[in-house]
Amino acid sequence: MRRSVGGNFAWTLSAGLVYALAQWGVLVACARLGTMELLGEFALGLAITAPVMLLARMNLRTLQATDAQSAYGFEHYLGLMVLNVLGGVLLCCAIGWVAGYSARASLVIALLALAKGFEALSEVFYGALQKVERMGLIARSIIAKSALSIVLVVLALLITRSAAAAAAALGLAWAVVLFLFDTHAYRRVFGGKRPWGLLWRTPWRAQGVRLKSLLGLAYALGITALLSSLRPNVPRYMLEAHFGQAELGMFAALAYFTALGGRVVHALGQAVSPRLGRYHTAGDQRRYGRALAGFTGGAALVGIGAIAGAVLLGRWALTLFYGADYAQNLELFVWLMVAAALEYVCVSLQFGLTAARELKAQALMLTASVVVVALGSAWWVPSVGTVGAAWALALGWLVELGASAWLSVRAWRRLGLQEVGTAPHGSGAQATPGADAAP
User: What is the pLDDT of residues 345-363, one digit of tens each?
Assistant: First the structure.
């Protein structure tokens, strides 16, 4: 049974906001129960592990949810994700060792990578549920994961005052929800099928070709996810190198406010993406265009609200949640919201491009954006500091916005050419010569 977009959006938004608040609560707990250096150590671990583990995830959930023809089974998505998670955790550990971080920092990196691995496996279950529009079950899982994580992390910090203990508590919370709640939800919706049994019983030698085919389709999304994560983290690497972990911790604390608006946009995207996939597969240009335009307009309104909130309430909010030392950086806070407003519009267009299977083009676009952010960070961070990092982010998002808007219009026009080319004889429509090659 199909659920309404409004109902799915409400569930997804509620869960997304709870998740964002919980993750923000982890940073607040690090700032209040620890030191700015402890917060910087935790933020460095996130900055190292996020790009690698997002590459491992390959955005398979979106690919899975928009697989309208069921070209691949649940076992293929889960099998590929297990392999990717193992490789991602090992790579994160290797980065911590090769980069020469302290043993304590390397342990934080390894534990956060493991935690993100459990979260990546949950995404496969979410993709299966999202495809049949059971967003309520996904929301309950995310809410449970959020509540348990903040409770365990706060307890770990109260007892140990250790970033490594906080990372371990985060991983424990996500593992409990994965193996208890997500597994049960899948069996409930899909007729009692045992998801882990599907994984072990699948004859992988015979299914190797299909697994490689899925990898070939998803690798572009993996690169896109890697680049998407590198973009906000490149300035953080520069800040840590030039100013140390305390300045990085302050920047990370302020930047996390942008995740609240991002959750609103992602919630709407998760609710709309199955329908975008169906409209595109059916060649329905009008519905695809209307859904994407409405989504993009909503994302723009969220961004405008974020900027206005930062200008009017920024100093009060920073003092309330972090303390007076953080509130001295109001200019940085406003610039971070400007960058976030551009990000929200770009994210909405990314959902449409993924539904249209414009995957390789997204990777090229993001590569250009990351290069711009890296060059801007190298130029502005040493001389301007944290505000320069926000400028670099805003410039990178602006470059992506121009490219993604052009790609979205191109994908929409191609649907119109398909409608003309497949119109029935006698309808008065004629196929356009060379339509397949039209931009």
Answer: 998 998 888 888 777 777 7
Please report the pLDDT score of residue 419 as a whole number. Answer: 56
161 φ/ψ sector (left φ>0, alpha ψ -120 to 50, else beta)? left
Rounded to the nearest 10°, the torsion over CA 231, 232, 235, 238 is -90
Cα–Cα distance measured from residue 85 to residue 81, given in angstroms and rounded to the nearest whole number: 6
Q: What is the mean pLDDT of residues 98-127?
A: 92
Q: Which two tokens stand for residue 199?
A: 């994984």
At residue 284, what are phi and psi to the nearest 5 degrees?
Answer: -90, 90
Q: What is the DSSP letter of 424?
A: P
- Name the residue with tokens 């949810």: 65
The model's pTM is 0.68
Length of the chain: 439
Look up tokens 């109260």; give the residue: 158
Long-range CB contact pairs, 410-415, < 8 A, 24+? 410/439, 411/280, 411/352, 411/353, 411/356, 411/358, 412/285, 412/288, 412/289, 412/292, 413/438, 413/439, 414/438, 415/280, 415/283, 415/284, 415/285, 415/288, 415/289
Per mean pLDDT, which range of 45-54, 85-94, 170-179, 216-225 is the poorest? 216-225
Which residue has better confidence, 255 or 66?
255
pLDDT confidence tier of residue 310, bands split at 50, 70 and 90: very high
Task: Give the residue extent of every domain in the chain.
Answer: 5-421
Q: How far apart are CA 42 and CA 32, in angstroms?
A: 14
Type and span of the H or E element at 273: helix 258-282
The per-residue pLDDT for 420 is: 52
Pair 174, 50: CB distance under 8 Å: no
Q: Where are the alpha helices (DSSP H) in 283-358?
A: 285-321, 324-327, 330-355
Ranges 41-50, 235-244, 277-286, 419-428: which has the least confidence: 419-428
Contact assessment for residue 391 and residue 433, using Cβ atoms and an 8 Å cutoff: no
Largest CA distance in the chain: 77
